[in-house]
Amino acid sequence: MLEAIRARTKGWLAKVILALITVPFALFGIDQYLQGAGSNVPIAKVDGDAITVQEFGNALQNLRNRLQSEGQTDLTILDRPELRQSVLDKLINDRLLSVEVKRANFSISDEQLSQYITSMPEFSVDGKFSEELYYQLLTQNRLTLKDFESSIRQDLKAQQAREGFASLAYIPDSLVEQTLKAELQEREVSVAEIKTADYLSEVSIEPAQVQEYYEKNKDRFQVPEQVQLEFVLMSANTLLPTMQVTEEEVRKFFDDNADQFQGDEERRASHILIGFGLSPTPAAKEEARSKAEQILEEVKKNPEQFAELARKHSQDPGSAQNGGDLGMFGRGVMVKSFDDAVFSMAPGAISDLVESEFGYHIIKLTEISGEAVSLASVAPQIRGELIYQKALAKFTENAEDFSNIVYEQSTSLEPAAKAFGLDIQKTPWMSREDVARVFKSDRMRDQVFTEEVLKDGRNTEAVEVAPNSLMVARVAEYKPAAPRTFEEVQSGIEEFLRVEAAAKIAIAKGETALADLRAGKETKGLEWIPPVVVDRKNAQGLTDLTMSNAFKIKTDTLPAYAGVADANKGFLLIKVSAVNANLPEDENARQAAKVEMQTALAAEYVDSYLKALRAKGEVSVNQQLMQSGVDN
Fold first, then answer.
1. Number of structural domains the chain divides into
2. C-alpha 396: how far from its chain's center?
3. Contact predicate 5/597, CB 8 Å
4. By CB neighbour count within 10 A (0-12 exposed, 13-18 middle, 19+ buried), where does 279 fall?
5. In a domain, 305, yes or no
6. CA 606, CA 562: separation in Å to the nearest integer?
7. Neighbours of 311 (CB within 10 A)
8. Are residues 381 and 522 in the same domain?
9. Helices and strands, number each (H, E), in the chain
10. Is 197 inside any structural domain?
11. CB-based contacts of 502: which residues, under 8 Å, 6+ apart?
């Protein structure tokens, strides 16, 4: 039992996914958004609520950031399907928990929220909460106070639900002892094989046997039904050559997305901050504004005294002592309102009041270094992005009409092809599996082989075979399933029967040898490998089949034996000659093992709880998007 539980909680995948569960994870890039078309396409739905490709991509990027911050350099694990599926499962579970905690009226008070945030090590300096570091980290990660606190509050509610089930986990000392004995036991194991291949020469297969097997199993030698398809594919990509983008559109995109094209330009600024608190009342904001306006008036009268006034009045403890100096920074580092102001100023200029979620800022631009990216240098890139966006919009606009035409004029592909300027293409002969594999769509396969399409000659529905790609097909020609001729399969059947007969001989001899060994009789001709000492984690080169049976053998009397038929390979004999319980003598080690077991059991309880929520909810996953590796 423990091995199965521990496999869930101690593998590399579990350790990676656990990084997603911790509440402080909200700090790392939660407000970074994917760029490019298609980001709002649902990759999954939970009770009708979409989890978008954008959210999935954000979660993967967050995990990438987290791994890099922990010193990981090999990030190829992020491309593994099982990890991507686990990331999506985490998003689905979060959505299910969100619904459940709302239904069950879980709550986190303002005091609990405040206590949690002020105790987070991310905001601690010398063991104490630093408001300056708090603001700084939120700014760097482009998080508003409202969004961050809402995210933490929701995570704490979900944590309440998880911990409620985890607290139910209990393992008595007697079970700990039994489990440790099984978990840590070592066994000295040897094996001997009675191989099928050694008996092939003893087998003779008559032609009549081959013919008889063919006649009885014709359905196993079928050539599957096949089709030749005509199809039309409409996608955003096919629309790209028809899209036009003007110079004015390119410039507007450049201006609206200036933070993407900053080059190596950095600016240095100083500021005076008059704050109004985390959740200000209108009166508090008005009081702060009034004070800031008075200071601004003084600054404009004596701009050369900016640093002195910052040291005197600024409520930003990190920069006030330096005369308000914030150092050099690039576009996008500061909150948007502050950022927009700084990057629109000339050196030496002083801003009017700039409001952010932290308060009111008076800004002085002191230095500019590096150069911004010119419009000319990025115009081709922008043009390509806008062309794709337009193609995507046009595809979305055409999709419904395309689907309607192929349905309403279902006896031909010509009307749809003509209406949208598409080519009718033709496939070679394809089986059911071929259709699904070539077009990466089980739905298209199922559509093609319906009676309406296959026999009545109608179009399939328009099927999304890839993101932003619709396909419709019709059957041009059809071949029903038919048996292969005897001549085509004769040699294969003969070889199969030879191996099958030889395997029966090997297994019979193996079972006889096993009975003799268990009876203490001498058995000749067995070649035992040198014994190795193994435990449940260290196989010492033994196969999975050997290991899975070696620890099932009863060891009341040694040596003890077991045997297992190994498919057509023959018969495997397993001998256990010694057993060592190997229990830890240190009481602390035993207690640590008990804690580990209870932690694993708690994880099982939580996992079962989440599975119950998933079974109760309506969850659907766009497997096509998952298989395509989409994350941006």
1. 4
2. 27
3. yes
4. exposed
5. yes
6. 38
7. 15
8. no
9. 24, 19
10. yes
11. 196, 197, 199, 200, 202, 203
